[in-house]
Inverse folding.
């Protein structure tokens, strides 16, 4: 897994690789999100609203213990609900011969129940479906727990800004993407804006409104990492915050480009530690799991 990261770190926009992130840690992740049309999103900027929620406490809380070296993770509120209805902790172990998940539920009275199951198969690299491939924690180039935050884009970032305590690294990605153009299905639709749309049957739209309109447009996504200047004992650096934004491709009437951006902020700075124990990745002693 680390070989991919090391290879990626050799290439960056400015030729200066970002520092290695810490791959084993515990933290309380504070997550704030806002869309371009959310209350407080001034001029369509969801990050303004998300930053306000982060300061005011309108956030999702998820406590995480992460071991990206061996492939282990423990997380509360894994569904990332703002007001979870259940107190559930998930433990995933991909380092076992048979990768397994434990779900610990704490009742109102404080008792803990446990259910356990094997982790399901995954899609194989060649595109074939399960049960062809066993579950795996993955690599820094794949979709697996936390890699989009910890390193899927991180190796290709370049330094954007610096302070006395942290450096800011950023990667901007623009890709042609098929998206629904909702404005073309309303009375605001005009053929000037929707002439490139495809309708629900796949044919080109010839009149308005055009139902279930799909259009291929450029979408800009921004991945920003706030990295601590302080070096850990193993030479790595703590990630303090990760921010992901997505530009809006359409206006409400279906015109392009859109105005504003959606914004998702993951703050890692609270209760952070680089020390984890093997016992963190197991149910409490004396608890029987069904």
């Amino acid at each position: 897994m680390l070989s991919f990261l090391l290879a990626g770190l050799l290439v960056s926009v400015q030729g200066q690789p970002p520092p290695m992130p810490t791959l084993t840690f515990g933290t309380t992740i504070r997550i704030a999100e806002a869309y371009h049309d959310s209350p407080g999103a001034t001029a369509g900027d969801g990050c303004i609203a998300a930053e306000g929620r982060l300061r005011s406490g309108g956030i999702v809380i998820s406590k995480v213990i992460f071991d990206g070296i061996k492939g282990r993770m423990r997380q509360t509120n894994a569904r990332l609900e703002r007001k979870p209805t259940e107190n559930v902790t998930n433990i995933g172990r991909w380092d076992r011969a048979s990768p397994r998940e434990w779900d610990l539920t704490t009742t109102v009275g404080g008792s803990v129940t446990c259910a356990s199951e094997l982790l399901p198969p995954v899609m194989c690299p060649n595109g074939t479906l399960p049960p062809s491939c066993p579950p795996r924690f993955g690599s820094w180039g794949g979709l697996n727990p936390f890699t989009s935050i910890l390193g899927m884009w991180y190796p290709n970032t370049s330094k954007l800004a610096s302070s006395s305590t942290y450096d800011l690294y950023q990667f901007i990605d623009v890709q042609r993407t098929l998206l629904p153009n909702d404005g073309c299905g309303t009375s605001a639709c005009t053929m000037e804006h929707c002439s490139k749309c495809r309708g629900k049957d796949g044919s080109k739209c010839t009149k308005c409104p055009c139902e279930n309109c799909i259009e291929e447009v450029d979408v800009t996504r921004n991945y920003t990492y706030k990295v601590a200047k302080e070096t850990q004992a193993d030479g790595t650096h703590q990630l303090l915050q990760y921010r992901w934004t997505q530009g809006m491709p359409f206006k409400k009437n279906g015109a392009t480009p859109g105005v504003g951006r959606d914004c998702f902020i993951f703050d890692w700075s609270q209760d952070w530690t680089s020390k984890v124990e093997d016992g963190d990745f197991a149910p409490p002693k004396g608890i029987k799991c069904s």
About this structure: Residues 1-13 have pLDDT under 50 and may be disordered. The chain has four helices and eleven strands.
